Amino acid sequence: MTTPKNDLFLKALRGEKVERPPVWMMRQAGRYLPDFMKLKEKYSFFERAENPELATEITVMPIHQVGPDAAILFSDILVIPQALDVEVQMVPGKGPYLPQPIRTPEQVDALPEIDVKDRLHYVYSAIDLTLEALENEVPLIGFAGSPWTILCYMVEGQGSKTFDKAKEFCFAHPEAAHKLLQKITDVTIAYLRHKQERGVHAIQVFDSWGGLLSPEDYRTFSLPYIQQITEALHEHTPVIAFAKGCWFALEEMSQMPVSALGVDWTISPQMAREFTSFHTTLQGNFDPARLLSPIPEIERLTKQMIDEFGTYKYIANLGHGILPNIPVDHAKAFINAVKNYG
Ligand SMILES: Cc1c2[nH]c(c1CCC(=O)O)Cc1[nH]c(c(CCC(=O)O)c1C)Cc1[nH]c(c(CCC(=O)O)c1C)Cc1[nH]c(c(C)c1CCC(=O)O)C2
């Protein structure tokens, strides 16, 4: 793997001193970018994701137009259920829809043994092309959902504020739930290991729905599987774990072999530092809705955020994905406020 010219992000992940914190935005590829919206009119989600040329174009778009210090591959966490023969549709205006969700232990047992490298070959072709297109300017992040977050969609069958059916399955059929979580974990490790082999510089695991679990249930149904993933991957590239709404788990997560932990905006930088004993690199935690504030306010809040986290062992980011209604100049103002810090 070659070191990119801009290696601020990788330095911060290694805990090295940097002249200013690196910055990128979760879900930066797509959504709010007008050129992305044009592609979206012409091609469906899976047409974009499964076509390496289009995926590359979309991945590189924010690098040129907004200027973050890292790229994140255009794809989705739900390619994993799809690789396991659980159909995923992206319904415009509604989000993911899985017409045949997992609702019984028998369905878990019937999931196929797969060669994920073969099933998701298009992701790996997109990595090859994207690394070329980036011309070694910035590092490329590969990602996957956490096993719990993937179970949420596989069982619920669609997005939800509470994921009641996913919880019901875990609490009514814990044995089958653990079997499913282990299956997702094994496939995810194979999937991400091969991304590392193809040359991504870092991995992020998104536990977007971890915060729906109690601390005890988090320890049962999510944490052990993220732990397995980080243990399997951390020797090959840095690994970032982002568990939304999981401030209560930060202390335990800081014991895992991670290079950084993502935090959302419901915890203060000071508390996040204390919970992680001041030794873990932290990433976050600007409220994405705050990008709707006037630009001077975005600049003030971004500076305040860096003042509070400190420039050492810190990666500036949002506390969750960028919203589709963010004006591009506001996203740029956030990125530039970090770049001009100090
Ligand atoms: C929970 C989750 C999903 N997907 C993802 C997560 C974890 C991060 C988070 O919590 O936001 C991760 C994801 N999804 C997508 C990316 C690509 C990179 C990027 O945007 O930076 C990434 C990193 C593309 C996408 N994934 C999806 C789209 C929108 C559909 C489309 O473009 O046709 C995109 C660009 C579809 C999707 N996929 C998912 C949802 C809820 C939706 C619908 C709502 C929406 O995000 O627009 C599941």
UniProtKB/TrEMBL annotation:
<feature type="domain" description="Uroporphyrinogen decarboxylase (URO-D)">
    <location>
        <begin position="22"/>
        <end position="31"/>
    </location>
</feature>
<feature type="binding site">
    <location>
        <begin position="27"/>
        <end position="31"/>
    </location>
    <ligand>
        <name>substrate</name>
    </ligand>
</feature>
<keyword id="KW-0210">Decarboxylase</keyword>
<feature type="site" description="Transition state stabilizer">
    <location>
        <position position="76"/>
    </location>
</feature>
<keyword id="KW-0627">Porphyrin biosynthesis</keyword>
<feature type="binding site">
    <location>
        <position position="320"/>
    </location>
    <ligand>
        <name>substrate</name>
    </ligand>
</feature>
<keyword id="KW-0456">Lyase</keyword>
<feature type="binding site">
    <location>
        <position position="46"/>
    </location>
    <ligand>
        <name>substrate</name>
    </ligand>
</feature>
<dbReference type="GO" id="GO:0004853">
    <property type="term" value="F:uroporphyrinogen decarboxylase activity"/>
</dbReference>
<comment type="function">
    <text>Catalyzes the decarboxylation of four acetate groups of uroporphyrinogen-III to yield coproporphyrinogen-III.</text>
</comment>
<comment type="subunit">
    <text>Homodimer.</text>
</comment>
<comment type="pathway">
    <text>Porphyrin-containing compound metabolism; protoporphyrin-IX biosynthesis; coproporphyrinogen-III from 5-aminolevulinate: step 4/4.</text>
</comment>
<dbReference type="InterPro" id="IPR038071">
    <property type="entry name" value="UROD/MetE-like_sf"/>
</dbReference>
<dbReference type="GO" id="GO:0006782">
    <property type="term" value="P:protoporphyrinogen IX biosynthetic process"/>
</dbReference>
<feature type="binding site">
    <location>
        <position position="153"/>
    </location>
    <ligand>
        <name>substrate</name>
    </ligand>
</feature>
<keyword id="KW-0963">Cytoplasm</keyword>
<feature type="binding site">
    <location>
        <position position="208"/>
    </location>
    <ligand>
        <name>substrate</name>
    </ligand>
</feature>
<dbReference type="Pfam" id="PF01208">
    <property type="entry name" value="URO-D"/>
</dbReference>
<protein>
    <recommendedName>
        <fullName>Uroporphyrinogen decarboxylase</fullName>
        <ecNumber>4.1.1.37</ecNumber>
    </recommendedName>
</protein>
<dbReference type="GO" id="GO:0005829">
    <property type="term" value="C:cytosol"/>
</dbReference>
<feature type="domain" description="Uroporphyrinogen decarboxylase (URO-D)">
    <location>
        <begin position="141"/>
        <end position="157"/>
    </location>
</feature>
<comment type="similarity">
    <text>Belongs to the uroporphyrinogen decarboxylase family.</text>
</comment>
<dbReference type="InterPro" id="IPR006361">
    <property type="entry name" value="Uroporphyrinogen_deCO2ase_HemE"/>
</dbReference>
<feature type="binding site">
    <location>
        <position position="76"/>
    </location>
    <ligand>
        <name>substrate</name>
    </ligand>
</feature>
<dbReference type="InterPro" id="IPR000257">
    <property type="entry name" value="Uroporphyrinogen_deCOase"/>
</dbReference>
